[in-house]
Design a protein that fits this description.
The structure is a homodimer. With about 400 residues, chain A is α/β, with parallel strands linked by helices. Chain A has two domains: about 150 residues, Aspartate Aminotransferase, domain 1 (Alpha-Beta Complex); about 220 residues, Type I PLP-dependent aspartate aminotransferase-like (Major domain) (Aspartate Aminotransferase, domain 2). Chain A has eleven helices and 14 strands. In chain A, a hairpin with an 8-residue loop joins strand 10 and strand 11. In chain A, helix 9 runs parallel beside helix 11. The N and C termini of chain A lie far apart (about 45 Å). Chains A and B meet through helix 3, helix 4, helix 7 and helix 8 of A and helix 3, helix 4, helix 7 and helix 8 of B. Chains A, B: Homodimer. Chains A, B: One of its GO terms (biological process) is alpha-amino acid metabolic process.
């Protein structure tokens, strides 16, 4: 069996395995990043034209591209519809970016921690992952400058707004500083923003790509967190120098994004009923965040520290006693509770023990307290054993 | 700008450019592979459960996988639902296979001619393409044995049933011989079958993967040619040794295939109303094939030779006077007619002049005669000029 060299770096996905385990109805899962089922909006299909069954354009549906460009301009991103590429969920943007930039040994710059599925695909293509520690207001700027002085990464991949997993949102000052550094060193920015709309304090900072003067950029978003993930409709907006390459890579990947989902997305993007839905969603998740934090205070105050997330879907816990959180999974599952260990969110997992990502959007509120109580007990037991 | 080495092999897609030109309503296009609009079935969405809006499994919807496995078993392919991976159109199977097998310089074995989008993605990943000439009943078996004796390709990519572009269907004897050779040399088979259901003479030969005893295999199909391409729902079925790798690659590419299209596909696969629709579709295309062939006889008898396709969507013409058919495109477009040059379907286009692929399924019958007449005139003029 002669597979590609790449396949030697194809890891079993911890996420997939945890999510599979979480399918058992008795399991209380803090592991995934799933929207709450009850907040999936009711969608109508009756008016969809039959002609959408035909093959479509690789770029995406023209009207949807116009609508997405208008939304991005409203955020301050200078762009035209011709720069918008509709993709099969924003995961595909990572695949296209990996193909565009990464050979074996190509250096790329990531936050630590970062989104683990991005890490996986960049590593699959053979990237050497440079990292910059994430702090409460954004990346460590001294470390960022050092990396840029000492290396020439093909791109910086950043998730500045309610990052998965850490929930960090870059401050205004941090956004400006990062943009200035990327311009100074001429490094392309990939800015991933799946969680921007899920803001609990109304904050709406301008994207970093909108603060760049020279560097090339890809801005990426999705309807998966606010409308329906099952549609698999995401998008990227790229600086004009990058767009033609990304378009050809999209075409070779799957010809075009499904038109049914694109049509449904178009019924929402930029409309008043979408704004109303988003307002409800923010309020709903804000309440879930509050309830979750109250339960955390009760069960985890002695075990971990955290910042209260101002948006997104996750709490990021730092254990007071470091331990490899992957070793807790079996014990947690035996208690019908699961979570995401922090290690896989780091390029160097074995020196980054002691973090947990807990999703607060999807758990049934009636089981929240019991779930966190059980998880705390599992951790407490492991801490005690480690101390012994 | 530092792109990957791969991007130097990213060609502008001739297909995309021709299809873009063909968007002008006055253009009579024989270029694409589009189903006839009037044969797109009316689909109902009213009963789709809202829960399908949630994230799904990377493998695909369980019921759809069961239905696809049952269909494949009925063709003689020994498989279980656990071997079925639903993909975002069968183009994605090519992307996943390229990732699984191809490093720079990896040898792969293809038909000549072959599907150009397969050629493009295999070459994008750096494959060295070995080829075997296609004859009326299948590949040149002496050449195939020679290639296998002299090389060790990572896989053979074959389209044995109404190939795009040549419309060739392998005979029973050819299928057996190919399977025996791949078993003998232990070469993995990727068998691509988008056109199997579009048979005009009722032929239904067992797939080659069903005739293998030892070699690994990937069998790939789609609903794009028989239901709705805009759904972007295809599938692969793989031997159990390959499946786990393909599944992880699928997850890293786009998490999972859109569930809306999967649900719609499930409403059809294996049902009586799908069988009725397929019967109508075959009769409709058979009549279009007949009308097309009559018009070809009238306008092209002195210019080209062809075999009458027994299925699929294309005529493959061999010009009596060889010339680079790519050079005809501008002249054809100036006459508001377009077609697919044959050269891009060959790994070595510059030594394979003189073929044209003509789609017969999509053209308005009222414009068929005028379109072929204009195209013949363009070719006749070029032949005359070449002779001068």
């Amino acid at each position: 069996m002669a597979f590609s060299e790449r396949v030697t770096r194809l890891k079993s996905s911890l996420i997939r395995e945890i999510l599979a385990a979480a399918q058992r109805p008795e399991v209380m899962s803090f592991a995934g990043g799933l929207p709450a089922e009850c907040m999936l909006p009711k969608v109508e299909w009756a008016d969809m034209p039959l002609t959408l069954g035909q093959y479509g354009m690789s770029e995406g549906e023209p009207e949807l591209r116009e609508a997405l460009a208008a939304e991005a301009r409203a955020l301050g991103v200078p762009c035209e519809a011709s720069q918008v590429l509709v993709v099969s969920g924003s995961q595909q943007t990572l695949d296209l970016a990996a193909k565009l930039y990464i050979d074996k040994g190509t250096e790329v710059l990531l936050e630590a921690p970062t989104y683990l599925a991005a890490l996986q695909i960049f590593q699959l293509f053979g990237a050497d992952c440079l990292t910059v520690p994430l702090q409460a207001e954004g990346p460590d700027l001294i470390a960022l400058r050092q990396r840029l002085e000492q290396h020439k990464p093909a791109f910086a991949y950043l998730i500045p707004t309610f990052q998965n997993p850490s929930a960090v949102r870059y401050s205004e000052a941090s956004r400006d500083a990062v943009a200035a550094l990327l311009d100074e060193f001429g490094v392309t920015l990939i800015e991933d923003e799946p969680y921007r709309e899920l803001t609990f304090d109304g904050g709406n900072a301008k994207p970093i790509v909108a603060r760049l003067n020279k560097a090339s950029w890809i801005y990426t978003g999705t309807v998966s967190k606010t409308l329906l993930p099952g549609l698999r409709v995401g998008y990227l907006i790229a600086s004009p120098d990058l767009f033609p390459h990304l378009l050809r890579l999209k075409q070779s990947a799957d010809l075009h994004t499904n038109r049914i989902g694109q049509w449904q997305a178009l019924q929402w993007i930029g409309t008043e009923h979408y704004r109303e839905h988003l307002a409800e969603l923010r309020e709903f998740y804000r309440q879930r965040r509050n309830a979750f934090e109250a339960a955390l205070q009760e069960h985890f105050a002695d075990l971990a520290d955290w910042n209260s997330p101002q948006g997104g879907l996750f709490f990021w816990l730092t254990l007071k006693q470091k331990l490899d959180t992957r070793t807790l999974l079996d014990a947690a599952l035996s208690q019908d509770v699961t979570f995401m260990p922090g290690e896989p969110f780091f390029a160097d997992p074995d020196v980054n023990h002691g973090y947990l990502r807990l999703n607060f959007s999807h758990i049934d509120p009636a089981r929240l307290d019991e779930g966190l109580k059980r998880l705390a007990a599992v951790i407490r037991k492991a801490v005690t054993r480690q101390a012994a």
